[in-house]
Amino acid sequence: MTDVSTALDLHAVLAPLSLFPLAAAMLLLGLLLKGADRIFVARLQRRVGPPLLQPFFDIVKLMSKQSMIPHGAPKTLYLALPLVGACSMLLAVALLPIVGCYTPSAQLGDLIVLLYLLTVPAVVIMLAGSASGSTLGAIGFSREMALMLAYEGPLLLVLVGVAMKTGLAQGQLISFSLMDIVHYQQAHGAFLFDPWMWPLVLTYLSVIPANLGISPFDIPEAESEVLEGPLCEYSGPALALFKIMSTMKTMVVLTLGIVLFMPGDLTGVLALLSYLLKCSVFFLLAKSLLRAAIGRMRIDQAFLFYFKWPEALGVLGLLLVIFKG
């Protein structure tokens, strides 16, 4: 049951995007990729699928509605959580270099700051499930927490491994500067083509589905089981902000993968086209094919999977960097 409803001001919701033109462009690209993903998966399953611009239509429709607040839910926290999640991803985008197109200021932060920002959406979703007062939200909360504990370890091993590879080459133990990582690969070749780095590449690829909530790791928000879990009570602009957060996080994770393993050295229009091509291929391989081919895992299966294979691959990759790098 709900006892309060509120309509968030559309201008207030979208105003932060005007401060970050790059974030607005990332959101546009992310929504287009989500539309292409739906069409691609539909074709694989012999369906027509929705139009390419359906993700845009969904957000516009949600923005025109009201956000209903469940009875007993803390209003301020309930409405603040999606805004915090979306803003965290707007900031994360500003940290990521796009070779030939955008170079972030070193004062904004490095790989450590980005790692912290990447954990914010998962924490926000857990708090949202708790704040809603829904049983389904509580179930989604517990699933999200277990999944985050499982994939954060392998992700940290990847980031440390790449940072150590770059740092050791510069005569220091480790370098968390994203620009240093890019410059090293431009001088010595992309890590994607270094066989000693392949365990870390595979580890990062395995972390993407759980980090983005993609099948078979969309367990916290399983529609057929817990009706979107932590987000089941959200509606209107608040839910639209969660969708924006999800889209921006997709672009952050894809761009981070490009920065860590294949940044390239092009400039101008060619650099932009190269980035768009990498994002599209990366997205379709890491999300669309996997989502169409594999059914959802149970939470215990996902937890054990990440503690076995990606964790082992990450440790192997880190050891190879230490002794071969």
Describe this structure as you would to a colleague.
It is a single chain. With 325 residues, this protein is mostly helical. The protein has one domain (2-324). Helices cover 70% and strands 3% of the residues. α2 (21-44) crosses α11 (268-293), α4 (75-95) runs parallel beside α10 (236-261) and α6 runs antiparallel to α8 (198-212). It is globular and about 60 Å long. It starts with a strand and ends with a helix.
Q: How would the blueprint of this fold be written?
A:
Elements: E1 2-6, H1 10-19, H2 21-44, H3 54-63, E2 67-70, H4 75-95, H5 111-131, H6 135-169, H7 178-188, H8 198-212, H9 223-226, H10 236-261, H11 268-293, H12 299-324
Antiparallel strand pairs: 1-2
Tally of alpha and pi helices: 12
Anisotropy-based shape: globular
Helical fraction equals over 70%
The counted number of beta strands is: 2
Taking all Cα atoms into account, the compactness measure Rg is 20 Å
**Strand order of the biggest β-sheet:** 1-2
Q: Helix and strand succession?
A: EHHHEHHHHHHHHH
Number of self-contained structural domains: 1
Subunit arrangement of the protein: single chain
Unreliable residue runs? 3-13
- How far apart are the termini? 58 Å
Q: Mind summarizing the main beta sheet?
A: 2 strands, antiparallel
Organism: Shewanella fodinae
Pfam families: NADHdh (PF00146)
Membrane topology: Multi-pass membrane protein
Transmembrane segments: 12-33, 77-99, 111-141, 153-176, 196-217, 302-323
